[in-house]
Amino acid sequence: MERVWQKNYEKGVPTTLTYPQTPLYGLLDNAAAEYPDRAAVIFGAVAHKLPGQPLLDAALSYRALREAVNRFANALAQMGVKKGDRVAIYLPNSPQFAIAYYGALKAGAVIAPVNPIYTPRELEFILQDSGAETIVALSQFYPKLQEVRAKTKLKRAIVANIKEYFPSLLKTLFTLAMEKKEGHRVEIAAGDLWFQDVLKSAGTVPPKVDVQSNDDAVLLYTGGTTGLPKAAQLTHHNLLANVVQLRAWIPWAKEGNEGFLTALPLFHSYAMTTCLNMGMLLAGTLILIPNPRDLEHLLKAIDRHKPSFFPGVPTLYTAIINNPNVTKYNLKSIRACLSGAAGLPLEVAKKFGEITGGRLVEGYGLSETSPVVTANPLFGENRIGTIGVPIPDTDVKLFDVETGDKEVAVGEAGELCVKGPQVMKGYWNKPEETAKTIRDGWLHTGDVAVMDADGYFRIVDRLKEMIISGGYNIYPREIEEVLYQHPAVFEAAAIGVPDAYRGESAKAFVVLKPGQKATAEELIAFCKQNLAPYKVPRAIEFRDTLPKTMIGKILRRELVAEEKAKAAQAPK
Question: pLDDT category, 46, cuts 50, 70, 90?
């Protein structure tokens, strides 16, 4: 079906595509068959922290990566992992993540990625909800895992040490200077296994598991309006389709020639598609950055390894252009950057382009869509302030926010709804939530947008009261649930407020119980014990009452309006 936005596609970008009906791990197998000696990943996380040492890193070839993946898949099968079983991955960006990811898929398992900065409380929920019986965890995270393990269905833990794929000199230096100090040296419980021992225990011929393209591949946990995360069920086909769509968006990219700066966390759908799976599809090299806040390592890695692609979020690009040492590094290899998760400021896009010579454009997606829905053309017309146009085979309509079933006219605001091969199967074990979100074949995103006459979309509001801080989604209810656990708190409400660096940050409004006392600092400290750092409110305001509806529902939108009014009256 012809759509107005298709006239804005770059030359060479088709409007429709053919999708392989194969498992997702075929991306790696194909790359290894064609480019066995090419570097699949480059890794060396902490070299510059060691006094007097240059950047040290090591590469893992496609041949070596495929061999390790096959060994891991075999080992899981030998342990009793069956098709459809869930395997949690609790790792930072590292070679072990790629091995565990494709190895688990090749064993027929479904992956449940876990944010490495989650607290034990958050980890426990994902393990319980997914029903994972196996977890691959970093040794540094092992104590947190042990804290909640008895409350989960876990039968086995496979423990990886960050240094396993360091170059030999860095591995020695790390063992002597940092391993124990930073908590990487642990004793594991009886029955648990070390990652390298697992690989050595199995053969290199992959197990014979009948994995179909419509089988579940990944459970991606996203925030829930009830205060608890819910998992988008993404199939092999969903994820493979989205990476094929993105490949078509960059017809000028060359197989076996591109480098992907992988600073976004691989547990998130954005990096999973735009870095990991796209890297495999193009037989590219992933330059793994475990900690994107470590800008010195990131800049050194660009200077040394010359990546051509750098998917990111506005906060990361902002940090780079404002880094006082940025001019010391050669960043001119960067050709294209797709920014997502938050609005991209014009000045950031302009300045980043000046520094790198590359193109930085904004796109849009969500976990439920694997994730990419729209993007500005990388070398076509980039309309700053928009999220671009729908990618091939993706249909987008704007429906009236009141009725939910009437399409609005060009230039009018409506809820952005999506159809396409990348749209999830549904929410894991949540049929009611699935039915609310996918209606008549359309995924209702909860984002309100406007389409111009040329088919470019612009986000103008959110029906969901989600906070997007530094590219991470935060649902207010999750913050509120933690605050309600504090003995002094009677009522609580959380909203997003403007943040010059993060786009938004969380602010909480609290009513204390009669006769109780608490300070903002105390409540923030309590939140830090129970929430990942990016979810912790950066400000708390105490109130005698909170605005409510006639039936007593707290009106977060009224608090948002109050904050906007205050900001408008503040001196410029």
Answer: low
